[in-house]
Structure formats: C-alpha cells, structure tokens
Please model this.
Amino acid sequence: MKRILTILFLTVLLFPMSTQNIKHSWQGKKVGYLGDSVTDPLNDGSKLKYWNFLRDWLKIEPYVYAVSGLYPLMDEFTQYFKNADNDRLHPNDEGHKRLVYTLMYQLLTLPCDFE
Model:
C-alpha cells in the first residue's frame, strides 16, 4: 500500500493533471529566452517549443532570441529528437514537453521580480 501511494504521489507531482489551476506570480509577465536552435522559433524540428508550453501553461509572454544548437545524448533519448538517424540536435514536440516540466517547476520556485 505504501508503495502504491508513493507511486501515485510521484505521478501527480511529476505529471500535473491540469496546468490551468496553477496560481503564481509569473502570470502575465514578459519573459526573455536566450537560447540555441532548441529555442529558435524558426527551427522546424518541432511545432511547439518549450517556451510555447510555458506561455500556455503559465500565461507568460515570451521574447525569444536564439542561435546555434546542442548535440546528442544517449541513444535511449533519441525518441525525443526530430530524427534519431540524422538529427539529434533538435527536440521534437515530446522532447520540448520533457524540457518544459523541468523549467516550469524551477521557474515556479523563483519570484517574478527581484525588488
């Protein structure tokens, strides 16, 4: 029973059912993103970038500037990239979604201003 409760708790913690009920101080704020080709809105590796998810889930306004790229991880993570055979630089939609969970939870721990 304890094991089942632990699994349920971790599932709810790691995969929120709804992001529409999150109350936070970042809502409506303008957020700048400096990044590489993963951030680049012109990169066609995915339709939605991580900052699209943050925009929708946290209701923030993104300002995006991007250059360059990143390089592959281990083979078991190729499912999160555009094409495992010839493009492991650019995450696909699921890859961006995986990135955004980490970013969202880190962002929610920070104040929206540093006054």
Q: What stands out?
A: The beta strands are 30-35, 61-66, 81-83, 87-91. The CA atoms of residues 80 and 95 lie 4 Å apart. The first helix runs from residue 2 to 14.
